[in-house]
Amino acid sequence: MTKKLILFVAALIMTIGPVCYADGPKKPDPSGANTGTATEISAATPGSPTILEVANQAGHNKVALNIMWTLITGFLVMFMQAGFAMVETGLTRAKNVAHTMAMNLMIYPLGMLGFWVCGFAIMFGGVGAITTMGGFDGLNHELTIKLFGHSFGLLGSKGFFLSGTYDVAVFALFLFQMVFMDTTATIPTGAMAERWKFSAFVLYGIAVGTIIYPVYGNWVWGGGWLTQLGSNFHLGHGHVDFAGSSVVHLTGGVIALVGAWVLGPRIGKYNKNGSPNAIPAHSIPMAVIGTFILAFGWFGFNPGSTLAGGDLRIAVVAVNTMIASATGAFAAMVYMWWFKTKKPDVSMICNGLLAGLVAITAPCAFVTVGSASLIGLIAGVLVVESSFFFERKAKIDDPVGAISVHGVNGAWGVIALGLFADGTYGDGWNGVAGTVKGLFYGDSGQLLAEVIGVLANLIYVGLISYSVFKVIDLIIGNRVSAKSEMEGLDFPEMGADGYSGIKLDKNAETPLSR
Q1: Quick one: which of 50, 82, 389, 413 is 20 to 30 A from 180 by CA?
Q2: Tens digits of per-residue pLDDT, 469-478?
Q3: pLDDT confidence of residue 225
């Protein structure tokens, strides 16, 4: 009877989760002794554990599972950087290979250092207890203001240089969130490729991790004011973004839009009458392989955002992610083939697949697979139409389509959540009772909260990124010389050709008239 009771309590604790065990860590736990796991149950009397000791061990094991899951998926997201490097380099010209690759390489350490210094503290310094990974509650300093009788979170202020947070839960969260920041930071390198000074890029790389990305991230994922739209104003569950359509992709897309506009188009992109010229990619195979790497890494991006390996919703998230990527690629192929160029454009198929992934990133845990397929289909059409709009109407030169893939479809992703969330997941999200429902399932307030989040991103990220680029322009300038741009940035900027030993006819790399 005693053994059955022990097993019953252990199963109950595993179900309820790690925050329920008696000695849950509240103080820093760098060794993991209080949140770790063991091969045997720790007991005062070896071989005869009490019910409480079994319950504690079950909770510890749940925490260990969650930490391991979060770290592994973070490693997958980190590998997406290789995918971004290949997509962006493949879709640009051979004379800029070393420069484009170097930006994708260096944004990782530059952004990371900025995030470690202060970005993480600004974003998560007031998040409260990390319940899925042990209950550490040392991130508890949020700068707030009071308006209309409500408190609004603005910035975190605990954890600069990770000081005072020497705990396994915080370190796991830091790694996972850092690679998300890195994804945001690398998006503009594609839109601004082939004419951006590397020195200016370095200053941007530091700025994006320290201030551009973390502030909006705090508002959505750090307990800031956008999450409080539900509790303060009864707008659904506040601005909900499961894995980053707005926090990561819309932010990166807005930075890319502002940066590409500040830099201006590449030499030869537009004729005197304003009509655009095609500047062909130098390696479609490289871009396709990079796209597959990104699609693979997205299984860390979306399912990993549960921060809990025991959350069985992971299966729904993963399948929705797959289906949206497929319908995004299919829609972009068909739309280009039938309505635009009469050919199934390979680069646009790649962007359609990525657009589907970006769009499903916010709603992936909250929608049915049928809704996921529709979200991807719309994303595939949106990426084509917005690419043509920015190129031909707005005269924004984006060599890889980053603004359309990430910016436009990042916005579409959170709006889609506000439409299609079906009320089967998210009970208690952002401190609001009940599950998350969109407009089509009875909650118009959720859609309004998503729209407010998009507008807040456009205003804040647009203004702060413009300010950063203008300051950099005043200090060292953003754009390379016309001579360097015509020659190719590899040797003038990096001191070495990307394809050493291969003779490139750089004068032949001229735009093709459409």
Answers
A1: 389
A2: 999 999 999 9
A3: 97
Alpha-carbon distance 229 to 239, whole Å? 7
Q: For residue 112, tell me if it sits in a domain.
A: yes
- Tell me the longest C-alpha to C-alpha distance in the chain: 88
Residues 212 and 244 in one domain: yes
Q: Which two tokens stand for residue 128?
A: 């409260």
Give residues with Cβ within 8 angstroms of 304, minimum separation 6. Answer: 69, 70, 72, 73, 74, 76, 77, 176, 243
Indicate the number of domains in the chain: 2
Two structure tokens written together for 120: 């993480």
Contact 403, 249 (CB under 8 A): no
Quote the Cα angle for 17-19-24, to 5°: 130
User: Which residues of the chain carry a pLDDT beneath 70?
Assistant: 1-27, 30-40, 44, 47, 503-514
Helix locations, 343-408, DSSP H: 346-361, 369-388, 402
pTM assigned to the model: 0.91
Q: Tokens 């909006």 belong to which residue?
A: 216
**Domain coverage including residue 50:** 2-26+36-60
Tell whether 303 and 421 lie within a shared domain. yes
- Distance, in Å, from the CA atom of 120 to the CA atom of 127, rounded to the nearest integer, reads 11
- Please check whether residue 490 is in contact with residue 496, taking contact to mean a CB–CB distance below 8 angstroms: yes
- The span from the first CA to the last CA of the chain, in angstroms, equals 81
Distances (CA, A) of 26 to 121, 130, 347: 18, 10, 50
Q: Is 182 inside any structural domain?
A: yes
**How far apart are alpha carbons 253 and 257 in whole angstroms?**
6
Averaged pLDDT score across all residues of the chain? 91
pLDDT in tens, 106-137: 999 999 999 999 999 999 999 988 878 888 88
Are 149 and 293 contained in the same domain?
Answer: yes
- Cα distances (angstroms) measured from residue 300 to each of 19, 96, 244, 295: 24, 30, 12, 10
Q: Does any domain span residue 499?
A: no
Instruction: Render the burial of 18-54: b for 16+ CB within 10 Å, e for the rest.
Output: bbbbeebbeebbeebebbeeeeebeeeeeeebeeebb
Q: Amino acid letter at 271?
A: N
pLDDT at 4: 56
CB atoms near residue 501 (< 10 Å): 5
Contacts of 211 (CB under 8 A, 6+ apart): 118, 119, 122, 464, 468
Residue type, 311: D
Regarding whether 343 and 248 lie in a shared domain, the answer is yes
> How many CB atoms lie under 10 A from the CB of residue 371?
23
Cβ atoms of residues 383 and 395 within 8 Å: no
What pLDDT does 419 receive? 98
